[in-house]
Amino acid sequence: MADDMADDEPKALGRCSVFTYGVGHMLNDITSACWYTYLLLYLTDIGLSPRNAATVTITGQFADALTTIIAGELIDRFGHFKIWHGMGCLLVALSFTSLFGGCLPCKIIGSDSPVVQTVGYCISAVIFCSGWSCTQISHMSMVNGVTLNPTSRVACVSCRNAFTMIASLILYAIAFFVFNKKSSSSQVDIKNQYQLMAYISIFIGAVFVITFQLGTKEPSLKQESDGKRVTVSWTYWLKKALYYQVLSIYVLTRVVTNVSQTFLAVYVINDLRMSPSSKALIPAIIYLSSFIVSVLLQELKWSGERLKALFSAGGLLWLFCGAAVIFLPINMNAFMYVLSVLIGIANALMMVTAIGMESELVDKDLDGSAFVYGSLGFVDKVLCGVFLYFLESYESADPVACDPAYPCFSVTRFSLGFIPGISALIGVVVAFFIRFHISHPKALTEPLLA
């Protein structure tokens, strides 16, 4: 590390090092895709009321938000990124089997009452989300220590984003296989389906965790010549108008992606009356199109104005998709496959550019980046948790009676169409007023996936 700092041009990472870092978040990504896409559907299918299911999700979201702040502060102080990463992955794996494999506290107590089930799943959700945050923060924050080469840093982040899409596609492929198997609709069979999906997901994620742990070196926190760490005060960021603008952009983008992902499976089954396999196929199409767009975006030269332009394009595209979701009748449900492609494109445009705006905000103030990423993540998780709680509380577990030729109102349609659409529109308005520093960025000299 010291030799790299002494060079005018730090040595770039090899493709193998970029790969081993990029796969380090796969367990988080594959379990997160399952959490947002199937948790609400799973909990209501096994008999929990929508309000109790919403209680489970908001409990997990608040635990996630709190752990994000705590883990970030502790990692900044003590380091040991890979230990935090490994501990987080272990908690994720253990709790995920309980979350989607049946209520473990219920088995211990010997009661399946709604209260015991809700408390039991809340405990699993807290452990899962706490471990998830430890893995996320340790993995995100270590990239600056892994390499001092700017191009390699972009390659590492791009690789991670690409494997996020791949993880989601793997999850939906597993779900397609599991849900396509002939099975009765009893709660036992439903639990067995989700338990199988959980075990396969954890096994695949664990393989990539081991790859990351063996292939990535532990970075050192002491990067200054005198051995001291100089951090930027929180007040430095809180006095910048750009901080609040980027905060708004990032949080609104997460609302778009998280809320839409949460209600998508319920929408295609209950509102559009599509086949059970569609709750895996539709999300898979969304992530496949997002993956393709994300790879293409790596080839562009980035500037503040281009970030704003492509974010606005994604936001307006989501506004169109949201309107289509609201007014799509049952007898035209096949159009959802086309709509899923557009949603995937919009998601990629918004997410890639929103994260790019975070980098523009941090700029060269790397010693204060932990607060930026941590605070934005905290607000995102709290706000999304509140949104999901209130929306899921009024969700119906059964399909609403509806004329196939006409769209009918449901909380699911409102949640999947209106909330993401209006959030995207507000984000476009905020982006219009953002003014970034003038820069002349260089494109990657060697694209990651060339």
TrEMBL record:
Signal peptide: none
Any one GO BP annotation for this protein: carbohydrate transport
Transmembrane segments: 83-106, 118-142, 162-180, 196-215, 280-297, 309-328, 334-358, 370-391, 411-434
UniProt KW keywords: Membrane, Transmembrane, Transmembrane helix
A GO molecular function held by the record: symporter activity
Top-level taxonomic group: Eukaryota
Coiled-coil regions listed in the entry: none
Cellular component annotations (GO), alphabetically ordered: plasma membrane
Family, similarity comment: Belongs to the major facilitator superfamily. Phosphate:H(+) symporter (TC 2.A.1.9) family.
Protein name per Swiss-Prot or TrEMBL: Major facilitator superfamily domain-containing protein 12-like
Phylogenetic placement of the source organism: Eukaryota, Viridiplantae, Streptophyta, Embryophyta, Tracheophyta
